[in-house]
Amino acid sequence: MKLLQLLTEIECKTYEAMVKVVYKDDSTTKIAELMRALPGVTTVTLASDLGKGRQVLKVKLISQKSAPEAFNSLKNNALSKYSTIVGVKVADKTIEEK
Q1: Distance between CA atoms of residues 14 and 21, nearest Å
Q2: CA-CA distance, 54 to 11, in Å (whole number)?
Q3: Residue 2 has pLDDT above 90, yes or no
């Protein structure tokens, strides 16, 4: 099978949502940069800094999964890969397919 055929059969969708991230307030790392490094994430923008150890981010990702599955994977990856992140909450009402 040719590579072009395989690529045209793959259906990836792009989703965007607001994500609240809770992290250890003594962290010196930038949370948006950590989130950008996760698989499938294409864009992360700081929407609001809620103060000590909390940020709201606008996250755009690409996935073959449905939107809830994709953002659940994002949450699980963030919590398992980074010990500085202690909580991730996706605002389900803000999920949009782009």
Answers
A1: 21
A2: 34
A3: no
Backbone angles phi, psi at 55, to 5 degrees: -140, 150
Mean pLDDT for all residues in the chain: 88
List of domains in the chain = 11-97 (3.30.70.60)
d(CA 6, CA 91): 34
Spatial contact of 57 and 21, defined as CB atoms under 8 Å apart: yes
Task: Map tokens 């793959």 to a residue.
Answer: 10
Pairing status of strand 13-23 against strand 41-51 = unpaired
Which single residue is written with the structure tokens 């949450």? 75
Angle at 74 between CA 68 and CA 8, to 5 degrees: 70
CB atoms within 10 A of CB 55: 19
pLDDT tens digits, residue range 19-62? 999 998 766 568 889 999 999 999 999 998 888 889 999 999 99
